[in-house]
Structures are given as structure tokens and as C-alpha cells.
Predict the structure.
Amino acid sequence: MAATTPTLIPVEEYLRTTYRPDCDYVDGEVLERNMGETPHGCLQNFFGFLFRLHRDDWQVEVFPETRLQVKPDRYRVPDVMLVAPDKVEPRIIRTPPILCVEVLSSEDRMCRTKERVGDYARMGAAAIWVIDPWRRVAYSAGADATLHEQTDCLTVPGTRIAVSVPDIWVELDRLESLARRFRGQD
């Protein structure tokens, strides 16, 4: 089977186009993001809600699925992003975020995820968290973009931001229990 050549578009076209759901833009190519499954949505909502509860205490603004310019020709759309209140920008975040959270979908591949993590780290994100609800593994990365498995707590160095990893799995257990009850399996 022959490889297909990606269709490249100018960054200006990407910026004026609305994608549903939004897409990444990498070196002229529009890349769809995997999402739409209940574990992904559940955890994206979990993080967004938790971060909003602590917004004032942690001095952050919470942005789900918001464009982040990581390089002049590269835009990413993290599942959830935390930004310092004085770094909020009108349409697209262009300053390094405090945290980028990626929740994997069943079709996500670690090689592509590591590329995203590298983009966030090179841009200067203070921390990057990757959550795999399918394998129930949580990772964190810093400036070196190396993913480290975390079993106890996810943190952002130099801040009070901390999330218990077991609490993430409790949220997934709650979702799975609801699904079993709905199917009459409990």
C-alpha cells in the first residue's frame, strides 16, 4: 500500500477554521485528536472540575481543549491546561502553561503522545501529566519530557498543585459501576 502525502495548509487557514472537535496543527498538517470515549470524557471532566475547585487557592485558570501555540508552526490542544492568571490571552495561549494534561483514548499511541509531551516541555510547560485510563497508569514529565510513572500523587513542582492518583482511579471505578448498573450487571 502506498503512503499518502498529507495535505498541508497555511497556519492562517488553520487559525481561521473551526474544527469539531478541535485539531492540532503540526508543521502545516491538521491532525485529528482521538477522543469521545466515556473514560476520556470522565477524566477530562474530573480534572477540569477539580482544578476549578482549587483555582483561587492554586492561582490558576483552567482551559479544557484550548489551542496552545508551542512553536510558530505548531499548535496543540491539550485536554486540560492550567495557566497563570496573568498569562491568559484572548484567543490562543502562547505563553508556557503551568500544566498540560493529556488523557489517552483507546486509539492513542505512546509515540504520538511523547511527541506532544516534547512539544509542551520544549515550550516551557512546568509540568505535563499523561493519564492512561485503559491501563490505569499515570505519568508525569517535566522539562526533559521524560515520562515517569506515578502511583501516589501527581504534582507540579514549586506549586501546591497535587492530585492523588488513586482518586483518579476511584472516579473511573464510579463510572464503571454506573455502566454495569445500567446494563443490569450489578
User: Anything to note?
Assistant: The first helix runs from residue 11 to 16. The mean pLDDT is 92. The two ends are 47 Å apart (CA to CA).
